[in-house]
Amino acid sequence: MSLIEMARFLQANENQVFIALPDAADTRYIDLLRPYVREVFFVPLLAWNKINLPFLQRSKGWLYRLYRSKGGWLYTVPRLVQIIRRHQIDLVHTNTIMALDGAIAAKIAGIPHVQHLREITGYRKDAIYVMVGQQHKRVFYRLMNWLHTTLIANSEYTKQSYAGFVPEHKTRVIYNSVAAGNLNTVPATLNQPAINLVANVTSKVKNHRLFVQIAAEVSRQLPHATFHIYGRLPAANDPYLLDLQQMVERLGISDKLTFEGLENDTAAIYQQTTILIHTYPYESFGRIFIEAMAHGVPVVAVRGGGADELISDGENGFLFEQADIQTAVQQVVRLCNDPALYVQITDQGRQFAQQFRGEIVGQQLIDLYQRLLPA
Does pTM top 0.70 for this prediction? Predict the structure, then answer.
């Protein structure tokens, strides 16, 4: 979503945008990008995360990656260099730390490279991957300093997580943006509140179990409340999904909690959401928080990560400790029973979300690009 917003703003401000992506069977995302880009190139990208296995198994893992990419990443960098030179690209911006191919190509072509830090990597408990070479901190730092002209972290939390791994003097924080057209959605009614979670059930780390526990407690105090989990669902026989469904049934809320599956229309989700609960404490940024605020939906979130940075407890949302279910329940019930408080929180959330509008964040990107390009 951040990439789409970037492309939309850059194209609207008379920049020519070229996108290089791995090919995908599902073209819906690419179709969303096409109106804002000059051309889309399909280039296999090497997975730069470390395979944490014994040597022989690790070797098989790399061979499997080579097989899955059809050998493509052997020519990825030369192909990117060719694109840069043929289309006279002025600057390369890589949208994820998980791909270094663009940085190498930009280095060879002699043009600036911007590396976006959106994921937490390394050996921290909040990391999703370990990058190749990251076990050698000094070596990894030198590589990052050599490859990248500048780095963008999507939050202070993300920037701090890379302390010692990337050059601080080259790193600046630019928050993700939210589409300007989504700022005036009317939320669901308080009379029959819909308490929702937006988190793919295919991602077990999102802690759906905590949401189910909170839902069961809230249901006892708000009998008319319903609960919905939006996000991609695994196969029907997936053990994690089955465990969640059994938990819902065991707690006696199977008639109140539903798994809605993937919904691509963000506005449609928030039109049916009275309060958003978020149960994952390690969001690198937390687009979900800003989207909810922008749509006039208050957020009740676990402390940690981007939530601590974006949510001022009791002002534009509420925070609770992961082990403190009762506080989360109290916050939800209080919001539903106090319309004045609900309006106060949503108003302050909307106001806070304004700074993440596409035109504001996009201008920060353009200003950065202009400083990196030769006069």
Answer: yes
